[in-house]
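User: Can you recover a sequence for this backbone? Please restate the input before giving your answer.

Assistant: Of course. Working from this structure:
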């Protein structure tokens, strides 16, 4: 996990429904501002023609393309409240940088001051969260308010209001993803930095639209967060209960993880897994009785769908007096909420000229991988001839035919030659406090092949804090600040699990340090997207045994890990394709009802299943791929998972090839935030793709002795 300040600029990605009422409010608010002296499009255009001629005469032909682009960009975002034609003309005359020296001055100033702005905003946000994030004693109600406060929430609005955003738009061009992909490799680093500078102001979403998006997001979040199933109250046809009292599982995460855990239960595992699959299908089809959601006062047979008053009591509080017990289905709430997120997301479309749909914003701006390419990569994994081979191997390990829930097969995870207790003891002896871990960072880095001076340099940029939770990494946003490694220390010292997480988080911190302090332009700070920083952190995490001075995992263990990753990627690639197809369907059917969306989602889930899963599972029309809760509240986030697996594999393979992690890690991390493909070309010589994963899987199958 990695915490980063959420910039206002990207706020609306994470968030979206607006009632017609809100829409009306916005129109009214606009017209009241318009009322005194509305500036019309025609007036703006006249001004533009005049200014174009004027600037051309002043700056010369060489500046012609910049003048045209700059004026056009300012006009596109200018609103009546920004001023009349006189204000517009005056602004352009005094802010167009017409020669290289003025452009350089402008660029340098913005780069330096935006680093200060981001850095200090982040510093405030970090300090405000400390009581919640660190092991510092009780969290008071006001600590939560401090923690939830985002000092940068209004920065983008302010920058349009004071016209600094317009200054950037007047002087640096906005780009499309196509341009960044096709032209980017030929750009200078400075051009890349200018591109990222302009992108910060690529949209101007009104506050009420952001608010509507945030509301829809929090409404669907709440729905998902309260969607628990009380497992002891699931009964089979004989009235038997398979799950222990008080077990309360959140859909879909805990339900899925329970399926994974049940592989270890020799006696009831299979029956439990089948039952959970039935529950999941009822959630997806919305045939689940409303009364069984988050309710320990009823017993439910998910096969017959019969509901009765609970015959056993494990409830924390008595049943409500007026509890009506019947099996009336949940009224399609799942799809009603998904529609709300779509309708809210759509409100931002008109304010995002270079990416006018949420689908485009996700792929072209957040991920910067075109949707068609990403889809092709996922289909390459899904239809790989390795799938039936791995499936056969799983069947032989299970001793039975695959069933649909085996998309979550977890049995490839190998055991360790050390017990958890042995490892805990070793780690606790080494690290009795956060300070002890901090002092050892240079040694840990040297063990990964970082040269001593670089290990010292990086370690000097990392602060270690005792975390309240399991740990996280919080990078800095300006060079005068340090990255923070938050790690869990028990009273008896650090344990092995804590160490494993700390090493992962330290991987983030090292990436954060190098990609901020050693990148040539701070405007290029970071990596292309979160999948990259996770991949780099996994490189560290995979070396945890070596860092403890123990033997690295053997070839067989490595092979099983690869097969586990391949099967996980196969599963989540199917889920991602469903998420993508559902968002397209919503954009194609803007007036759809929740019931229509449900029918469409089921059809899409079955279609993907029949195409990519039914051939190896031997069963058609399964809807499990649509059970992920992120589909309802996360605005087309799911494709990030499979792409993350592919990227992690590419990076790992590259590091393995060179044999030394340190220098290779450093070379990669300093590339900064260019497109994923350009970053990966620089890192590995190839664009982002599925080949590394597929090649490693093929090798792994040979190593475990599977027959093709
Ligand atoms: Zn992480």
């Amino acid at each position: 996990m990695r915490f980063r300040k959420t910039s206002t600029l990207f706020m609306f990605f994470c968030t979206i429904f607006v009632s017609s009422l809100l829409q009306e409010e916005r129109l009214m608010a606009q017209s009241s501002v318009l009322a005194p002296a509305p500036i019309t499009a025609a007036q703006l255009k006249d001004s533009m023609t005049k200014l174009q001629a004027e600037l051309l005469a002043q700056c010369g032909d060489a500046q012609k393309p910049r003048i045209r682009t700059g004026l056009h960009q300012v006009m596109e975002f200018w609103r009546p409240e920004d001023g009349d034609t006189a204000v517009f003309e005056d602004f352009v005359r005094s802010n167009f940088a017409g020669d290289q020296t003025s452009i350089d001055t402008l660029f340098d100033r913005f780069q330096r001051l935006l680093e200060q702005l981001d850095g200090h905003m982040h510093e405030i946000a970090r300090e405000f969260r400390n009581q919640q994030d660190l092991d510092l004693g009780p969290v008071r109600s006001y600590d939560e308010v401090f923690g939830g406060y985002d000092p940068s929430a209004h920065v983008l609005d302010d920058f349009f209001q004071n016209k600094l955003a317009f200054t950037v738009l007047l002087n640096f061009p906005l780009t499309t993803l196509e341009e960044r992909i096709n032209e980017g490799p030929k750009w200078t680093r400075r051009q890349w930095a200018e591109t990222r500078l302009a992108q910060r102001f690529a949209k101007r979403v009104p506050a009420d639209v952001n608010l509507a998006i945030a509301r829809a997001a929090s409404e669907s979040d709440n729905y998902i967060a309260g969607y628990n199933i009380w497992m002891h109250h699931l009964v089979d046809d004989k009235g038997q209960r398979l799950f222990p009292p008080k077990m309360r599982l959140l859909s879909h995460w805990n339900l899925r993880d329970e399926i994974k855990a049940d592989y270890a239960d020799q006696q009831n595992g299979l029956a439990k897994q089948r039952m959970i699959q039935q529950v999941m299908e009822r959630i997806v089809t919305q045939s689940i009785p409303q009364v069984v959601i988050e309710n320990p006062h009823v017993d439910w047979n998910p096969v017959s769908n019969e509901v009765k008053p609970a015959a056993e009591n494990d409830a924390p509080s008595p049943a409500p007096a007026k509890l009506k017990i019947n099996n009336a289905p949940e009224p399609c709430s799942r799809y009603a909420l998904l529609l709300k997120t779509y309708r809210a997301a759509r409100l931002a479309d008109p304010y995002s000229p270079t990416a006018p749909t949420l689908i485009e914003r996700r792929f072209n701006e957040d991920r910067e991988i075109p949707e068609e390419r990403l889809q092709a990569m996922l289909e390459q994994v899904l239809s790989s001839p390795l799938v039936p081979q791995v499936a056969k191997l799983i069947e032989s390990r299970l001793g039975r035919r695959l069933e649909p829930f085996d998309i979550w097969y977890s049995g490839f995870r190998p055991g360790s030659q050390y017990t958890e207790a042995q490892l805990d003891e070793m780690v606790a002896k080494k690290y009795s406090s956060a300070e002890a871990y901090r002092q050892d960072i240079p040694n840990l880095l040297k063990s990964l092949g970082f040269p001593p001076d670089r290990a010292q340099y990086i370690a000097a940029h990392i602060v270690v804090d005792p975390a309240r939770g399991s740990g996280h990494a919080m990078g800095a946003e300006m060079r005068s600040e340090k990255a923070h490694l938050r790690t869990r220390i028990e009273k008896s010292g650090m344990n092995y699990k804590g160490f494993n997480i700390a090493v992962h988080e330290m991987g983030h911190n090292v990436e954060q340090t190098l990609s901020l302090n050693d990148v040539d332009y701070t405007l290029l700070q970071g990596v292309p997207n979160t999948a990259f920083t996770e991949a780099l952190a996994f490189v560290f995490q995979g070396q945890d045994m070596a860092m403890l001075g123990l033997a690295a995992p053997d070839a067989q263990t490595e092979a099983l890990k690869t097969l586990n990753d391949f099967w996980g990627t196969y599963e989540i690639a199917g889920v991602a394709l469903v998420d993508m197809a559902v968002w397209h369907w919503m954009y194609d059917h803007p007036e759809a009802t929740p019931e229509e969306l449900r029918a469409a989602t089921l059809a899409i889930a079955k279609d993907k299943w029949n195409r990519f899963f039914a051939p190896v599972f031997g069963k058609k029309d399964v809807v499990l791929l649509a059970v992920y809760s992120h589909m309802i509240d996360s605005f087309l986030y799911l494709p990030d998972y499979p792409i993350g697996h592919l990227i992690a594999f590419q990076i790992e393979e590259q590091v393995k090839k060179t044999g030394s992690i340190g220098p290779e890690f450093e070379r990669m991390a300093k590339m900064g935030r260019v497109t994923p493909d350009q970053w990966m070309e620089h890192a590995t010589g190839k664009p982002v793709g599925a080949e590394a994963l597929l090649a490693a899987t093929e090798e792994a199958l040979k190593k475990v002795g599977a027959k093709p």
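That completes the design. The longest strand covers residues 462-466.
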